[in-house]
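Figure 3 (text version): structure tokens given as input.
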């Protein structure tokens, strides 16, 4: 019997090199069940004027790098022609697209360009799960996957292959002749028994990731799904809520550490892995005894450099010591705002500045480099409040400092807040946290925010006596730009060499 064929489409931020777990996981689940999968990945097409990483270089967030050293170049062919040709060659039975809000427009354009093929399209991903009423209006999409896709996609493929009824498949919204069948959610996936990720759908060079000027074969390993915290700007609480409303109260799950070790060893048997990225919102939320066991086995059986992120609440001397013994090469923390009141009340991140500083001092003590994420442009945020964020960054010693613009995603509680308070137009679509603020009626103008964003790392690192000079580099004038260029060169020499 002819194998059922699925073509995945990954509309991505241009040249953003990390791999999405969702599609990689779904490919594993489909292939284990005899279904063929191919992927159309837009990452290397010139879909934007400037790449996300190039913008980050300009904003002094990352060290300049040359992707061509790892064989990565922009494709010169036409993205839409290439997609069409792939469909003609591969003849898929089903097309599956994954969507986050930033990539919805590109996703729609791609689907529109292939609508004449008359191949059914299923869409999934966090944007679809949190905004089904909007996505369902897209004519090119036939089925929506709400929540986890492993079981639903498999059932869809089987039923389509066997020409069975698809209207009642759990987790799917199915457009029927005169109605939309909105099915309930099925139980959550057991992460300890789910199939391994299938990285083979990606070109090998897509698995390469630049880090501090070098390029690594970096594989992602999912350690937990979801997050127990409540941050008002993030999709994680909204996803948890979506499941809770359907009677499933344990959306946030961790894998057993034994499974994580087995999984990494499996990937190491297939690839020359030289870096691991642990996909966990708060890697250190392992109970201490389990983490000790995990650390012992990781050190003995794997000992690859790795990158992880965690919340400051989970930092203890003991756990960070274990991380350093395991060879942790980099950690990432969200500071988001250094203004305690804004962070506690608006963002629902309930820790003190002292907790942040103390936790990061422990990380520094064990010489683990760390990156911090900051966000500016929140509702009610004044210039002084931005300087509270700068101030907390000055008390720690991060390897790199990111400053993103607040972009409220649909489906999150801060998105609703912004609409209700006239801070965001209902139809405004978020596109990237480096392209200016999508908000209105903020205490700071869009221009002021952009100026603060580009000078943010300078304020965080240079002596306070130079603040006047940095302030002049906030201006988007000939003089301001010249000053910014000069200060940027000095910054790169000092911190990126
Ligand atoms: C890891 C991660 C990344 C990774 C992988 C991205 C990805 N697309 O998976 C990297 C680092 C590349 C990344 C990049 C970006 N990310 Co990100 N990321 C996450 C994070 C922390 C976890 C996602 C994850 O791996 N979940 C586990 C997997 C298994 O779940 P999943 O991806 O949702 O997939 C399941 C289902 O959704 C479904 N599904 C997914 N796709 C499909 C497709 C089909 C056909 C079907 C049937 C089902 C299906 O089945 C999957 C398996 O169950 C989330 C936060 C969160 N908790 O969700 C943010 C998050 C997804 N990221 C976000 C953003 C904004 C971005 C960027 C735009 C950042 C930037 N400025 O560049 C880019 C966009 C890149 C892109 N094209 O997706 C936002 C999206 C907001 C929104 N509402 O749209 C989130 C939700 C964080 C937030 N701010 O709330 N991110
Ligand atoms: S800790 Fe991170 S993943 Fe969890 S809710 Fe907050 S921002 Fe989202």
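Below: residues designed for each position.
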């Amino acid at each position: 019997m002819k194998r059922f064929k699925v073509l995945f489409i990954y509309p991505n931020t241009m040249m953003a090199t990390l791999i999405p777990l969702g599609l990689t996981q779904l490919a594993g689940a489909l292939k284990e069940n005899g279904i063929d999968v191919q992927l159309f990945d837009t990452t290397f097409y010139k879909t934007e004027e400037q790449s996300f990483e190039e913008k980050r270089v300009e904003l002094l967030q990352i060290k300049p790098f040359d992707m061509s050293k790892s064989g990565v170049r922009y494709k010169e062919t036409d993205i839409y022609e290439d997609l069409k040709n792939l469909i003609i060659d591969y003849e898929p039975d089903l097309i599956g697209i994954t969507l986050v809000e930033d990539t919805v427009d590109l996703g729609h354009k791609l689907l529109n360009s292939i609508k004449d093929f008359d191949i059914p399209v299923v869409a999934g991903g966090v944007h679809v799960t949190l905004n089904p009423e909007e996505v369902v209006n897209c004519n090119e999409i036939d089925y929506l996957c709400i929540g986890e896709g492993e079981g639903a996609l498999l059932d869809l493929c089987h039923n389509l292959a066997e020409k069975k009824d698809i209207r009642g498949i759990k987790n799917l919204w199915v457009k029927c002749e005169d109605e939309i069948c909105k099915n309930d959610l099925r139980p959550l996936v057991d992460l300890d028994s789910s199939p391994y990720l299938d990285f083979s759908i990606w070109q090998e060079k897509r698995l390469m990731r630049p880090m501090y000027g070098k390029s690594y074969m970096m594989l992602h390993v999912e350690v937990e799904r979801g997050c127990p915290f409540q941050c008002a700007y993030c999709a994680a609480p909204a996803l948890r809520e979506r499941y809770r409303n359907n009677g499933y109260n344990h959306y946030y799950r961790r894998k057993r550490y034994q499974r994580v070790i087995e999984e990494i060893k499996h990937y190491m048997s297939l690839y020359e892995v030289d870096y691991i990225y642990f996909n966990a919102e708060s890697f250190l939320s392992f109970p201490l005894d389990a983490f000790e066991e995990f650390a012992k086995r990781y050190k003995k059986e794997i000992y690859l450099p790795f990158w992880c992120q965690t919340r400051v609440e989970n930092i203890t001397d003991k756990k960070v010591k274990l991380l350093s013994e395991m060879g942790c090469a980099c950690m990432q923390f969200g500071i988001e705002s250094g203004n305690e009141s804004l962070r506690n009340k608006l963002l629902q991140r309930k820790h003190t500045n002292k907790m942040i500083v103390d936790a990061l001092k422990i990380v520094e003590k064990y010489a683990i480099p760390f990156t911090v994420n900051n966000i500016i442009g929140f509702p009610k945020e004044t210039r002084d409040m931005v300087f509270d964020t700068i101030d907390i960054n000055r008390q720690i010693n991060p390897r790199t400092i990111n400053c993103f613009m607040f972009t409220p995603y649909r489906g999150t509680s801060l998105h609703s807040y912004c609409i209700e308070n006239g801070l965001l137009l209902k139809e405004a679509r978020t596109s990237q946290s480096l392209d200016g603020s999508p908000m209105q009626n903020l205490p700071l103008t869009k221009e002021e925010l952009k100026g603060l964003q580009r000078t943010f790392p300078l304020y965080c690192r240079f002596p306070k006596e130079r603040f006047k000079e940095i302030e002049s580099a906030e201006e988007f004038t000939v003089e301001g730009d010249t000053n910014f260029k000069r200060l940027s060169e000095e910054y790169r020499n000092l911190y990126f060499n």
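The chain has a mean pLDDT of 94.
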